[in-house]
Amino acid sequence: GQNIDQPTEMTATEGAIVQINCTYQTSGFNGLFWYQQHAGEAPTFLSYNVLDGLEEKGRFSSFLSRSKGYSYLLLKELQMKDSASYLCAVRDKAAGNKLTFGGGTRVLVKP
Amino acid sequence: SAVISQKPSRDICQRGTSLTIQCQVDSQVTMMFWYRQQPGQSLTLIATANQGSEATYESGFVIDKFPISRPNLTFSTLTVSNMSPEDSSIYLCSVERRAETQYFGPGTRLLVL
To answer: How many angstroms separate the CA atoms of A100 and A1, rounded?
Structure first.
Protein backbone atom coordinates (compact mmCIF):
# COMPACT_ATOMS: atom_id res chain seq x y z
CA GLY A 1 0.00 0.00 0.00
CA GLN A 2 0.91 3.65 0.06
CA ASN A 3 1.28 6.18 2.82
CA ILE A 4 1.07 9.86 1.93
CA ASP A 5 1.42 12.45 4.68
CA GLN A 6 0.91 16.18 4.57
CA PRO A 7 0.03 18.70 7.28
CA THR A 8 -3.65 19.21 7.94
CA GLU A 9 -3.68 22.98 8.06
CA MET A 10 -1.40 26.00 7.60
CA THR A 11 -1.94 29.70 8.07
CA ALA A 12 0.03 32.46 6.37
CA THR A 13 -0.16 36.17 5.70
CA GLU A 14 -0.96 37.78 2.38
CA GLY A 15 2.25 38.45 0.43
CA ALA A 16 4.23 35.84 2.36
CA ILE A 17 5.53 32.41 1.31
CA VAL A 18 4.17 29.05 2.43
CA GLN A 19 5.74 25.63 1.91
CA ILE A 20 3.53 22.54 2.04
CA ASN A 21 5.43 19.31 2.59
CA CYS A 22 4.38 15.87 1.42
CA THR A 23 6.09 12.60 2.28
CA TYR A 24 5.21 9.31 0.68
CA GLN A 25 6.07 5.63 0.70
CA THR A 26 5.49 3.66 -2.47
CA SER A 27 7.01 0.64 -4.17
CA GLY A 28 6.71 1.82 -7.77
CA PHE A 29 6.88 5.62 -7.80
CA ASN A 30 5.81 7.03 -11.13
CA GLY A 31 5.08 10.67 -10.52
CA LEU A 32 3.77 13.12 -7.94
CA PHE A 33 1.00 15.64 -8.51
CA TRP A 34 -0.23 18.68 -6.65
CA TYR A 35 -3.83 19.84 -6.93
CA GLN A 36 -5.61 22.90 -5.57
CA GLN A 37 -9.18 22.57 -4.34
CA HIS A 38 -11.29 25.54 -3.31
CA ALA A 39 -14.18 24.81 -0.98
CA GLY A 40 -17.10 23.33 -2.86
CA GLU A 41 -15.16 22.96 -6.10
CA ALA A 42 -13.32 20.18 -7.92
CA PRO A 43 -9.54 19.78 -7.67
CA THR A 44 -7.54 21.61 -10.33
CA PHE A 45 -4.11 20.46 -11.50
CA LEU A 46 -1.15 22.55 -10.34
CA SER A 47 2.04 20.62 -10.98
CA TYR A 48 3.66 17.31 -11.84
CA ASN A 49 7.09 16.01 -10.81
CA VAL A 50 8.57 12.71 -11.91
CA LEU A 51 12.30 13.59 -11.77
CA ASP A 52 14.20 15.10 -8.87
CA GLY A 53 14.36 18.84 -8.69
CA LEU A 54 12.30 21.97 -8.80
CA GLU A 55 9.51 22.79 -11.24
CA GLU A 56 8.50 26.45 -11.30
CA LYS A 57 5.23 27.81 -12.60
CA GLY A 58 4.75 31.47 -11.80
CA ARG A 59 4.08 31.92 -8.10
CA PHE A 60 3.93 28.16 -7.52
CA SER A 61 6.89 25.77 -7.45
CA SER A 62 7.06 22.07 -6.67
CA PHE A 63 10.09 20.09 -5.59
CA LEU A 64 10.73 16.36 -5.58
CA SER A 65 13.35 14.11 -3.99
CA ARG A 66 12.66 10.51 -4.92
CA SER A 67 15.38 9.11 -2.65
CA LYS A 68 13.78 10.81 0.35
CA GLY A 69 10.17 10.18 -0.67
CA TYR A 70 9.57 13.89 -0.28
CA SER A 71 7.97 16.74 -2.14
CA TYR A 72 6.95 20.27 -1.34
CA LEU A 73 4.71 22.86 -2.93
CA LEU A 74 5.89 26.43 -2.52
CA LEU A 75 3.40 29.26 -2.82
CA LYS A 76 5.00 32.71 -3.14
CA GLU A 77 3.48 36.19 -2.88
CA LEU A 78 0.39 34.74 -1.29
CA GLN A 79 -2.95 36.15 -2.29
CA MET A 80 -6.29 35.81 -0.53
CA LYS A 81 -7.54 33.65 -3.40
CA ASP A 82 -4.85 31.08 -2.57
CA SER A 83 -6.89 30.05 0.49
CA ALA A 84 -7.77 26.48 -0.46
CA SER A 85 -6.88 22.85 0.17
CA TYR A 86 -3.76 21.52 -1.53
CA LEU A 87 -3.69 17.83 -2.33
CA CYS A 88 -0.57 15.76 -2.87
CA ALA A 89 -1.12 12.66 -5.02
CA VAL A 90 1.28 9.86 -5.96
CA ARG A 91 1.14 7.61 -8.99
CA ASP A 92 2.35 4.07 -8.37
CA LYS A 93 3.31 1.57 -11.08
CA ALA A 94 2.87 -1.27 -8.60
CA ALA A 95 -0.75 -0.19 -8.15
CA GLY A 96 -1.56 -0.02 -11.84
CA ASN A 97 -0.49 3.62 -12.14
CA LYS A 98 -3.44 4.77 -10.07
CA LEU A 99 -3.35 8.03 -8.14
CA THR A 100 -3.46 7.92 -4.37
CA PHE A 101 -4.21 11.18 -2.60
CA GLY A 102 -2.96 12.50 0.68
CA GLY A 103 -5.38 13.99 3.16
CA GLY A 104 -4.87 17.51 1.85
CA THR A 105 -3.52 20.66 3.50
CA ARG A 106 -5.93 23.49 4.14
CA VAL A 107 -4.15 26.82 3.69
CA LEU A 108 -5.70 29.93 5.15
CA VAL A 109 -4.32 33.26 3.91
CA LYS A 110 -4.92 36.17 6.28
CA PRO A 111 -4.73 39.85 5.40
CA SER B 1 -6.66 20.15 -20.00
CA ALA B 2 -10.13 18.70 -20.64
CA VAL B 3 -13.68 19.96 -20.52
CA ILE B 4 -15.62 17.60 -18.29
CA SER B 5 -19.24 17.94 -17.27
CA GLN B 6 -21.22 16.01 -14.70
CA LYS B 7 -24.95 15.65 -14.16
CA PRO B 8 -26.57 16.22 -11.79
CA SER B 9 -24.45 18.83 -10.02
CA ARG B 10 -26.24 18.04 -6.77
CA ASP B 11 -29.13 15.98 -5.49
CA ILE B 12 -30.96 15.12 -2.31
CA CYS B 13 -32.18 11.52 -2.23
CA GLN B 14 -34.11 9.24 0.08
CA ARG B 15 -32.44 6.22 1.56
CA GLY B 16 -33.00 3.01 -0.35
CA THR B 17 -33.15 4.74 -3.73
CA SER B 18 -30.50 4.85 -6.46
CA LEU B 19 -28.92 7.75 -8.33
CA THR B 20 -27.07 7.64 -11.64
CA ILE B 21 -24.37 10.25 -12.22
CA GLN B 22 -23.26 11.08 -15.75
CA CYS B 23 -19.82 12.21 -16.85
CA GLN B 24 -19.24 13.68 -20.32
CA VAL B 25 -15.83 14.62 -21.78
CA ASP B 26 -15.19 16.94 -24.73
CA SER B 27 -12.93 14.46 -26.54
CA GLN B 28 -12.10 10.77 -26.53
CA VAL B 29 -10.16 9.39 -23.59
CA THR B 30 -9.07 5.86 -22.78
CA MET B 31 -9.27 5.95 -19.02
CA MET B 32 -11.96 7.49 -16.85
CA PHE B 33 -11.99 7.36 -13.09
CA TRP B 34 -14.65 7.73 -10.41
CA TYR B 35 -13.75 9.13 -6.98
CA ARG B 36 -15.61 9.80 -3.78
CA GLN B 37 -14.81 12.70 -1.46
CA GLN B 38 -16.57 12.50 1.87
CA PRO B 39 -17.08 15.69 3.88
CA GLY B 40 -13.76 17.13 5.02
CA GLN B 41 -11.84 14.23 3.51
CA SER B 42 -9.53 13.70 0.56
CA LEU B 43 -10.32 11.78 -2.60
CA THR B 44 -10.77 8.01 -2.64
CA LEU B 45 -10.76 6.10 -5.92
CA ILE B 46 -13.88 4.00 -6.42
CA ALA B 47 -13.11 2.43 -9.79
CA THR B 48 -11.42 2.80 -13.16
CA ALA B 49 -13.71 2.67 -16.20
CA ASN B 50 -12.25 1.61 -19.53
CA GLN B 51 -14.33 1.49 -22.68
CA GLY B 52 -15.21 -2.01 -23.80
CA SER B 53 -14.40 -3.77 -20.56
CA GLU B 54 -15.75 -4.05 -17.05
CA ALA B 55 -14.75 -1.43 -14.54
CA THR B 56 -11.97 -2.24 -12.09
CA TYR B 57 -13.03 -1.59 -8.50
CA GLU B 58 -10.85 -0.63 -5.56
CA SER B 59 -10.87 -2.42 -2.26
CA GLY B 60 -14.02 -1.61 -0.35
CA PHE B 61 -16.11 -0.86 -3.43
CA VAL B 62 -18.26 -3.43 -5.25
CA ILE B 63 -20.10 -3.49 -8.53
CA ASP B 64 -23.49 -4.20 -6.95
CA LYS B 65 -23.28 -0.97 -4.96
CA PHE B 66 -21.57 1.19 -7.59
CA PRO B 67 -22.35 -0.13 -11.07
CA ILE B 68 -20.49 1.73 -13.81
CA SER B 69 -21.10 1.99 -17.53
CA ARG B 70 -18.64 3.12 -20.20
CA PRO B 71 -20.46 2.88 -23.51
CA ASN B 72 -17.99 5.00 -25.50
CA LEU B 73 -14.79 6.99 -25.21
CA THR B 74 -16.42 10.25 -24.10
CA PHE B 75 -19.05 9.13 -21.58
CA SER B 76 -19.46 7.16 -18.35
CA THR B 77 -22.05 6.73 -15.63
CA LEU B 78 -21.76 5.79 -11.97
CA THR B 79 -24.82 4.56 -10.09
CA VAL B 80 -24.99 4.76 -6.32
CA SER B 81 -27.42 1.97 -5.43
CA ASN B 82 -29.62 1.41 -2.40
CA MET B 83 -28.35 4.61 -0.84
CA SER B 84 -27.85 5.25 2.86
CA PRO B 85 -26.84 8.47 4.65
CA GLU B 86 -23.23 7.18 4.66
CA ASP B 87 -23.23 7.61 0.86
CA SER B 88 -23.59 11.38 1.27
CA SER B 89 -20.50 12.64 -0.47
CA ILE B 90 -19.12 14.40 -3.51
CA TYR B 91 -18.65 12.08 -6.47
CA LEU B 92 -16.07 13.13 -9.05
CA CYS B 93 -15.12 11.74 -12.40
CA SER B 94 -11.71 12.35 -13.90
CA VAL B 95 -9.87 11.62 -17.13
CA GLU B 96 -6.23 11.17 -17.92
CA ARG B 97 -4.64 13.47 -20.48
CA ARG B 98 -1.13 14.48 -21.49
CA ALA B 99 1.75 13.70 -19.14
CA GLU B 100 -0.60 11.18 -17.56
CA THR B 101 -2.25 13.97 -15.61
CA GLN B 102 -5.78 13.55 -14.34
CA TYR B 103 -8.33 16.33 -14.78
CA PHE B 104 -11.51 16.39 -12.74
CA GLY B 105 -15.11 17.12 -13.48
CA PRO B 106 -17.02 19.62 -11.32
CA GLY B 107 -18.42 16.91 -9.05
CA THR B 108 -21.87 15.75 -7.95
CA ARG B 109 -22.88 16.66 -4.41
CA LEU B 110 -25.13 13.97 -2.99
CA LEU B 111 -27.07 14.16 0.25
CA VAL B 112 -28.96 11.08 1.37
CA LEU B 113 -31.69 11.53 3.97
So the answer is: 10
End-to-end CA distance of chain A: 40
**B46-95 confidence digits (pLDDT tens):** 999 988 888 999 999 999 999 999 999 999 999 999 999 999 999 999 99
Query: Can you spell out the DSSP letters for A12-44?
Result: EETT--EEEEEEEE-SSEEEEEEEEE-TTS--E
Residue A96: predicted pLDDT: 82
Length of chain B in terms of residues written: 113
The helix/strand/coil state of B62 is: coil
Cα torsion B40, B43, B44, B49 to 10°: value is 140
Report the gap between the CA of A56 and the closest CA in chain B (Å).
16
Cβ <8 Å between B107 and A41: yes
Tally C-beta pairs within 8 A across A and B. 42
